[in-house]
Amino acid sequence: MTISIDRVEEAAFEIMKRAAIEIPKDYKQGIQALQKTETGKLPRFVIHAMQDNWEAADEDRRPMCADTGLPRYYVKVGNEAAVQRGFVAVERALRKATADATLAVPLRPNRVHPLWRTDNNNNVGINAPEIEWSFEPDADWVEITTVHKGGLFGTDYRMLFPGDGIDGIKRFVLDTLIAFGKRGLACQPAIVGIGLGGSKDTCMQLGKQAACLRVVGDRNPDPKIAELELELMKLGNSIGMGAMGFVGSSMVVDCHIEVGHTHTGGMPISLHTFCLSSRRATARIHAGGEIEYRTDPQWFTPYLRRETVEW
């Protein structure tokens, strides 16, 4: 069966609205767990105020943060899926849903030309919103995830070398989180995503996906990487900073690591922080037209993490 392009646009608009307003349950639970262990009075106050704000936003059906970030999409296409008018039409539907949601939700129109600062007033422009694609075998659905992530700070990159090893990774993570906290470059408590390996552009992509497309409590299937995720989360919460940079112990809600095979001579690493408004929502449009809404993107499937030539 062919998926209606109208259903694609409908789903894209709906997840734009949900992502802006509704905090995912996994992130709420992560924040509540941090609140129980937070040592600082001011960070505890901030976390309490955050939760009050989330409740008010949900009740009023308005965005929970005045800065609604930079909307972007991650699209997973089933290999057996067919869409009315093809995937150029899907891209157009995603751009139109962004423009419509900017007006209707409303979202703050954050997108401007980098040089002329011209603004279409709808979060759509050259290469905006970003759309990343992946594929899934033996499926006839199309799955769309939107993420509303801040576009200014909370990201860093470094080229490490193989000899730096795990200690080098820890040093980079601690240096970066301390700098973010001291300079106000992150909106914590945050999910921290780390991209390790690949080329520089792939490394940056993996880190952002790790921050934005995995839920709190999810662990990498490689047990040694999973162990490192937990260790880095513990380290991040031991540097003396809590919510919004106040003295405390609640900087990292969770840490996720994604890897890519890289050049023999290097070990590139990127770090990305999602913000305290972890804004993501997913819609799976089935071949029969049904739409399933979730907050777990399920982006990192075994197929996406495959190592071999054949699947």
TrEMBL record:
A GO MF term: L(+)-tartrate dehydratase activity
Enzyme class: lyase
The entry's keywords: 4Fe-4S, Iron, Iron-sulfur, Lyase, Metal-binding
EC number: 4.2.1.32
Highest taxon, organism lineage: Bacteria
Domain (Fe-S hydro-lyase tartrate dehydratase alpha-type catalytic) ranges: 10-283
InterPro entries xref list: Class-I_Fumarase/Tartrate_DH, Fe-S_hydro-lyase_TtdA-typ_cat
Similarity comment text for this entry: Belongs to the class-I fumarase family.
Protein name: L(+)-tartrate dehydratase subunit alpha
Source organism of this protein record: Cupriavidus yeoncheonensis
Gene that this sequence comes from: ttdA
